[in-house]
Amino acid sequence: MTWTVTAEPHDSPVAAALWRAYYTEVSDRWYLLHEGRPTDPDELEREIAAATGADLAPPRGRLLVARYAGEPAGSAGVRLLDASTAELTRVFLYERMRGRGGAALLVRAAEDAARSLGAGRMVLDTRGDLVEARALYARLGYEETEPHNDAPYAEHWFGKRLSRPG
């Protein structure tokens, strides 16, 4: 079976399904850890609707979708924060697709997309309970940094200098 990664419109049905799955998983994980319950369904719907992903649209962003054997498997988003810095966001694989190399492939494709947008540095934030994500980023050369934003659930910030290909 093979992986492919391609750009996808942020508002496509595939992108919407991946965003819903991503947000449901990370939200439920937080609420179960901190409050012992899954996300309130009404709150989940409000948050999903509020984060449209429009910031991942060209010309200042990209949404990438990974497919495994042709089926949507995961996503990663890139958006420019300034002329030389891009932010990595929405890195996600459906649980059944994990452990097959797709996450690293998505992050590398996002780095390529950031370079094509003119970025020389990639930053990201994540939470402490997302230990798998933190391990992935460290394995791919990201280093913990000082905060670059004040996102409400951010607990760890990472950065990586993007070398030019060739």
TrEMBL record:
Gene3D superfamilies for the chain: 3.40.630.30
According to its UniProt record, what is one Pfam family this protein matches?
Acetyltransf_1
**Is Magnesium among this UniProt entry's keywords?**
no
Sorted alphabetically, which PROSITE patterns does this protein's record hold? GNAT
Q: Is-annotated flag, keyword Acyltransferase?
A: yes
InterPro entries given in the database record? Acyl_CoA_acyltransferase, Bact_Acetyltransf, GNAT_dom
Q: Which UniProt keywords apply?
A: Acyltransferase, Transferase
Q: Where is the N-acetyltransferase domain?
A: 16-163
**EC annotation from Swiss-Prot or TrEMBL:** 2.3.-.-
The GO terms this record gives for MF are: acyltransferase activity
Record-linked SUPFAM superfamilies: Acyl-CoA N-acyltransferases (Nat)
The protein depicted here goes by the name GNAT family N-acetyltransferase
Protein species of origin: Streptomyces viridiviolaceus
Its lineage reads: Bacteria, Bacillati, Actinomycetota, Actinomycetes, Kitasatosporales
